[in-house]
Specification:
The structure holds two protein chains of two kinds. Chain A is an alpha/beta fold. In chain A, about 25% of the residues lie in helices and about 25% in strands. In chain A, the strands form three sheets. A four-stranded mixed beta sheet of chain A has the order 6-9-8-7. The longest helix of chain A is centred in the middle third of the chain and has 13 residues. Chain A is elongated and about 55 Å long. Chain B contains ten helices and no strands. In chain B, helix 5 packs antiparallel against helix 6, helix 5 packs antiparallel against helix 9 and helix 6 packs antiparallel against helix 7. Classes of the chains: A alpha/beta, B mainly alpha.
Chain lengths: ~160, ~250
């Protein structure tokens, strides 16, 4: 396998959509930790965003299908170390989330939980920081429902965990 | 050492899974949609933690047992969760006080476990500590809201605390499994954070105008001795897996 082929395999894997957030790919979310190709086998390590993320099963299947589509056999493992952190979302991933009306996670890493939760999520529609978290838990493990007091629109925001 | 380590991992997995199963029974019964989402999400995070612990126990054991084998194919008497998490859901106050007492412990536990010399457990702890701190925030806000709420909600929160308090000491117990794992700096010694736990829950009780109970402490869960109703809880959790062994979808 040449370096070029490895790049192609990595691109195909990173292009797999998140089944619960189809606006972004698993590459955008930063959960693809490593890709190696050896003797017709593509070895992939993925790190779940939350320990109980129910999308992982589907993501593993979809990554397998993407690898088979390149004529390779998949060997996929999930690794917990180091733990996924919102800073792993790429700049283009953050942009895609915003365009989909989802506020990307706030904070730059290192803040404690209370500080993080006190930072307002800027409204993905009007950009105002006059927003409120309506509830700590939402429709997926990684997001919580918010509302913007400036434009009055509800929106989902990534949990900063 | 490895059989003690496996027992240790299973205990922590059992704690998370039994509490998760209990919370999932609330789904479609909670008084408002946001809380419906909350209990489901907390339950899901606990399943995630249990899965990681069970999978790792199977790996250490080297027997080929999977996380599903641990959850669905062990008899009820093999479960070694603390009795606290198997206390019946009761009313919403009972469930939230139970969650608060547990999460206060688990937040300190996972924080301490981030220092584990075992890379797998330290990594799991890194994520679980964040998830649990978030759960604790939620449970704490309910304990305060109910305790310092109406006469009715106060009375229910106090009754829940009076019942559950007697199951809290056991969360700080150790036997040969904990001692062996703690001695190797793999596990965290819960007696090291007992004072922090007492201070933390005590300050919330004050804010919630709840009286910290005194009285007898009960033990047993870690020895496989469970209360009536526990077998049915496990039986229901295992019923689908056992009705369709090895099913894939």
């Amino acid at each position: 396998m040449t370096g070029m082929s490895l790049a192609r395999v990595r691109r195909a894997i990173e292009a797999v959509e998140d089944p619960e957030l189809p606006q972004v790919t698993i590459g955008d979310l930063g959960i693809v930790r490593s890709v190696a190709v050896e003797g017709g086998v593509a070895r992939v390590a993925l790190t779940p965003t939350f320990t109980g993320c129910p999308a992982m099963g589907v993501i593993i299947e979809d990554v397998g299908t993407a690898i088979e589509g390149l004529g390779l056999r998949p060997a996929i493992e999930t690794v917990l170390a180091p733990a996924w952190s919102p800073e792993w979302i790429t700049a283009s991933g953050r942009q895609k989330l915003l365009e989909a009306g989802i506020a990307p996670p706030v904070g730059s890493g290192g803040e404690d939980l209370e500080t993080l939760l006190s930072l307002p999520s800027p409204c993905p529609r009007c950009g105002s920081i006059r927003t409120r978290r309506l509830s700590e838990f939402g429709a997926t493990a990684c997001k919580a429902p918010h509302v913007c007091d400036a434009c009055k629109e509800p929106f989902e925001g990534f949990k900063p965990l | 050492m490895s059989d003690l380590f496996v027992r240790y991992l299973l205990r922590q997995g059992d704690r998370a899974l039994v509490l998760s199963q209990q919370l999932s029974e609330w789904v479609t019964h909670v008084h408002e949609l946001e809380e419906e989402m909350a209990v489901a999400n907390i339950s899901l995070d606990l399943i995630g933690q249990a899965r990681a612990l069970y999978a790792y126990a199977g790996e250490i054991e080297g027997s080929g047992r999977t996380e599903d084998d641990m959850a669905y194919w062990r008899p009820a008497e093999d479960f070694q969760n603390p009795l606290l998490v198997e206390q019946p859901n009761g009313d919403f106050a009972m469930t939230m006080v139970r969650q608060f007492l547990h999460d206060s412990w688990a937040a300190l536990y996972w924080q301490a476990m981030t220092e584990s010399v075992d890379d797998t457990l330290a990594a799991l702890a890194g994520k679980a500590a964040k998830e649990t701190a978030y759960h604790l925030r939620h449970a704490k806000s309910w304990v305060i809201r109910l305790g310092d709420g109406t006469e009715e909600s106060h009375q229910r929160a106090q009754a829940a605390l009076d019942h559950l308090w007697g199951y809290t000491d056991a969360m700080f117990d150790s036997d040969d499994a904990e001692v062996a794992v703690v001695a190797k700096n793999i596990g965290a010694d819960p007696t090291n954070f007992k004072q922090a736990w007492l201070t933390g829950v005590g300050s919330v009780f004050t804010e919630a105008t709840l009286q910290q109970p005194v009285g007898a402490q009960r033990r047993g869960g870690r020895d496989g001795l469970h209360q009536s109703g526990f077998e049915q809880l496990i039986e229901e959790m295992q019923s689908v897996a056992r009705a369709h062994p090895g099913a894939q979808w």
